[in-house]
Structure formats: C-alpha cells, structure tokens
Amino acid sequence: MPRDMFDYVVVGAGSAGCVLANRLTADGKSKVALIEAGPRKHHSFKVRAVGMYFQLWRTPLDWAFQTEPQRHVDNRKMFWPRGKVIGGTGSFNSVVYIRGHRANYDEWRDLGNPGWGWSDVLPYFKRSQDCGRGASEYHGTGGPLAVDDIEGVKVPALDAWVKAAAARCKVPINDDFNGAEQEGVGYYQFNLRKGLRQSTAIAFLEPALARKNLTVITDALATSLVVNGDRVSGVRIRVKGSEQTIEGREVIVCGGAVGSPHLLMLSGIGAEHELREAKVQQKHDLPGVGKHLEDHLLAITQYRATGVNALTHLRKLTWVLRYLLGKSGPVAQSPPQAGGFIKNHPDAKLPDNQFHVVPFGLAPPNSDEPSEPPLGGAMMNMPGLIYPKSHGTIWLKSGDPAAAPAIDPNYFSDPADLEHLVDGVILAREIAATAPLTQYLGDEIWPGPKVITRDDIRASVRTSVNTIFHPTGTCRMGTGARAVVDPELRVHGMRGLRVADASVMPRIIGGNTNAPTIMIAEKAADLLLQAR
Question: In the predicted model, is pLDDT for residue 2 greater than 70?
Fold first, then answer.
C-alpha cells in the first residue's frame, strides 16, 4: 500500500473518476491515487456485453440500494442498482449517449455558476468524443470515448414506432438528439463500438494504467476523509479488513449522487443534527449535503409484438453464442434503441417527456424484486419524467461506512410528477394506436385493457413506475445555504476538497446523465490543473 503523498486522491473509479485519473496523469508529473470500492471486473463478459446489464443487478458488482418506502408510490421500496466496480454505474448502464438540452446548462450558469453555460461545456463534450459520424459543430473525433450509432440490423417494430410517434406527436424524425435540436424521435447514439461497451473504464482508465504516476487501489472502501480544521489532507480506506490512510494535497470525491454525500457525512461534513443522530461528530457545517436529490422516472406500457427480438429459451443461448463468436446480435446492442424527446403539452418550454423504447418485455409491474423477462415477442414503450418537481434526501442511518445510507427520493411528493407520467401513458397508448406501429402490436400487457380511467392509470403508474437510474444534485453546485460546492467544484468552507460527479448538478438535465457526468469530470480536470 502506498504511503507517500499524492498530488490528487480521486475517490471512486466511476464515470467521473476514470476521466480524472486519465487527465490528471497525462502530463506525467502529477501523482494520482484512484480508489475504488469494487474490483477490476470491467472487462468481464456481462459488463462488456451491453445487452446483459440486467444480469449484473444484485451481484457483488452492484451496491444494490433500496429506497426508503415511498409514501406516494404505494409505500414501495424501490430498487436502485449502482455500480461497485471499475467504471461504476457506467459499467452496467444502457450506454445511451445524451447530453441534455442546451438550455439546461444555461440554467446552471444563471443559477450562479459562471463557466457552466452551454457554450462553456460544449467543448468538453466534444473533447471526450470519438464520434463515428465524424467531427462537426456538435461532435468531436480523436477523443477517448466512442460515440456511435446503433450497430447491426434495426428492429422493424422500432422503425414503425419512430414513424408512428412522429406522426402522432407532430415532431420531426431526429437523427441527432445531441445536435442542433433535441426535440423529435429517432434512434439513440451509444458508448458502444464493435459490440463492446465503451465505459470510461475502457476509454479513459485503460490507456492510463501503464503510467507510473497513477496508482489504482481496488476493493478499497473509503471510510472517511481526513479532516483537519478546514482542510482535507487524505482519505481513510479499508482493504481486506486493514485500515489505511492515503494522503493527498487535494481530494476529489467522485462517488456519485449516493456515494459522495455519504462519504462527506461519514467525515462529519453536513447538518449537525443529522450527523448527531448517526453518532458522527460534526466537523464542518454544510446542511446542503445529501439534499436536493433529483431523479428521472419512467412509466411502462408493454404490448405483445411481432417484428421484435422475440425471446425463447433457444434464442437466449444462440444470442449469447452470436456475441461470443462475433460480438453481434441482441446481446451486443443496448436495449433502449429508439426513443425521443416530446412535449407532453404544446405550451411546454422544452421537450419534457423522454421515451425509451425496448424491443422485448420485462415481467411487470416493476424491478423492485428480481424477475426473468417473459418469453415471446413483446415491446415496451416507456414515457419518462425528465424534469421532476419532487426533490429527495440522502442521510446517514449509521456511522458504519459499510452500511448503506438512507435514500428517499420522495417520488411524487409533488403531484404534478404523477400527472406528467399519466399523460405520458396516454400518449404512449395513442402512439401504439397509430400506423404503421399498429401492424406490429397485439394485446396490451401493461397497464392492460381494464385500465381505462385517469384514476386507473394513476394507480397503474404508482405500481409500475421505475427509476431511469439518474440520481443527481446531492452535492449541489452554486451559492446559498443549500449549495455544497462552488463553480470550481470546491466544497464550501473546506480546503483541499472537491466533488466532481452527477451529485454537483444544480438542476437535473433533460436526458440520460452519463455523458454530462463525463463532461463534469473533463471540466474538473482543467480546473484542478489550472489551479496548480
């Protein structure tokens, strides 16, 4: 175990941490330690084969969190998979590459975060990219991160959904949601190349592993930061039952929207009364830690279908063989291949409903408990809530670092969020009844033909609603009593400590959050290097 002083200690080798490990060591001068609670399993079959990511849930590579009972969602304890492996949740997400709407970043800037407007962050998005389409005003080439269009044969029913959605919603067929305009329907782009997941573990960390100035410590649980007055000088870790301290001139916490506030609170950084309840001594008063939790939700409509990847026991085997032999077939593809951004109501300022469309089914109603996908042909058309009005909280249940924190997203505490998804289900049904999709769809499996009235749909949504796995905001960037970091990502009132991951988002973005998290890390690397 290293005992010397590092220039930077990065806690968490997820989507952000792997980027920082690469960028901070690129000059060969700065000594960096990267600490990860999970193992080096980012090359394993189920990680690299994107179509297998459901199989990683509830395994040793998953933190497998559960929320507190959601009082507005039938008191459900909802399942939150999060990656406990090199690459973090980016090692078992659906690799959809979405930046969000340009207005999201201008809102960040206008909330008191200069340097985070759209024109400021676009260069960082482009710097990361090796876009298969080539360089353009909105895309970059030559970067570490592959961003490609869907590979292989497209599914006929998905083509039909795109045409039907465009017709019913009166929106364009959009071939680039990361281009000039977000609104429309079409096919997503992915961090996927030649059938292999391109996480930041592969794209950023792997090329840096041979550098002598990078030390990677895996299977190491961060138990607390070393806090001396107003300064952080390292992190304490637990490796195989042994406690160690890794010292650094600057510590960058990249644990995500759950892990980052958890570590800060374990270290005594947070609200005094909350820390006292967990028997943790307060060292720095910062009441915003763990607050302002925002997340995306999706509702489910599911149909029996033709023209899809119909599942049989034999096909399960042949799909795996196709992947192993040629990195092709459904296992090599991301499940939500088509979708888009639509306004639920014409007067909305931005597209506020993101659809994820999947050419197979899941056992309804939800993923709170493990289940196997049903056999046969099915299709899921899932409308999404991407600008939630409900906010939640993460707090310590215990001062034991190995104990999970309490997670209360407070879903549907603002009734407008439920109504948004009810409208989304109604719209999804209308798309399903629009040509040419009608020729591929059979009976509605969920919510089902007996769900007719708006009250019926509300009950169905409460039963089936799921996270899209996009928690943000728990170490919010900005000013004021509830802000945790400043626009330089420095923790307010502390020296030598920054946070760089999705937890710093001052407002959740309209779309999948992995690409924005990578951008945050790219900008964080520049901020750190410029401050040397």
Answer: no
**Does residue 401 fall inside a structural domain?**
no
Whether residue 129 sits in one domain with residue 30: yes
Per-position DSSP letters for 145-214, written without gaps between them: EEEEE--SPPPHHHHHHHHHHHHHHT--B-S-TTSS---EEEE-EESEETTEE--HIIIIIHHHTT-TTE
pLDDT in tens, 173-194: 999 999 999 999 999 999 999 9
In this structure, are residues 69 and 409 in contact, taking their beta carbons and an 8 Å threshold?
Answer: no
How does residue 7 score in pLDDT terms, banded at 50, 70 and 90?
very high
Domain range holding 107?
Answer: 1-57+80-145+191-292+475-532
In sequence order, what are the residues at sequence separation of 6 or more whose Cβ sits closer than 8 angstroms to the Cβ of residue 228?
Answer: none
Token reading at 175: 């071939």
Q: What is the DSSP string of 1-45?
A: ---SPEEEEEE--SHHHHHHHHHHHTTS-S-EEEE-SS-S-TTSH
pTM above 0.90, yes or no: yes
Which pair of structure tokens corresponds to residue 284?
């720095």
Q: 221: exposed, middle or buried (C-beta count within 10 Å: 0-12, 13-18, 19+)?
A: middle
Percent of the chain residues topping a pLDDT of 90: 95
Together in a domain, 347 and 487: no
470 among known catalytic residues:
yes
Query: What's the distance, Cα to Cα, between the start and end of the chain in Å?
Result: 26
Nearest of 189, 383, 184 to residue 296 by alpha carbon = 383
Residue type at 474 in one-letter notation? T
Residues 180 and 258 in one domain: no
**Total Cβ atoms within 10 A of residue 294:** 26
Reduce the DSSP state of residue 490 to 3 states and report it.
strand
Tens of pLDDT, residue by residue over 434-464, are: 999 999 999 999 999 999 999 999 999 999 9
Domains in the chain, number: 2
- How far apart, in whole angstroms, are the C-alpha atoms of residue 443 and residue 420? 24
d(CA 228, CA 243): 19
The pLDDT, as a whole number, for residue 150 is 87
Return the structure tokens found at 219.
Answer: 């299977």
Shared domain for 308 and 162, answered yes or no, is yes
1 vs 176: CA distance, rounded Å: 47
Is residue 347 located within the same domain as residue 236? no
Q: d(Cα 393, Cα 408) in Å, to the nearest integer?
A: 5
Same domain for 46 and 173, yes or no, is no
319 and 182 within one domain: yes
**409: CB partners within 8 A, 6+ apart:** 67, 70, 78, 293, 295, 390, 392, 467, 471
Same domain, 273 and 307: no
Calculate what percentage of the chain has a pLDDT beyond 70: 99
How far is Cα 53 from Cα 51, in angstroms, rounded to an integer? 6
Q: Which of 42, 356, 470, 492 is catalytic?
A: 470
Q: Which candidate, 328, 325, 292, 286, places its Cα nearest to that of 309? A: 328
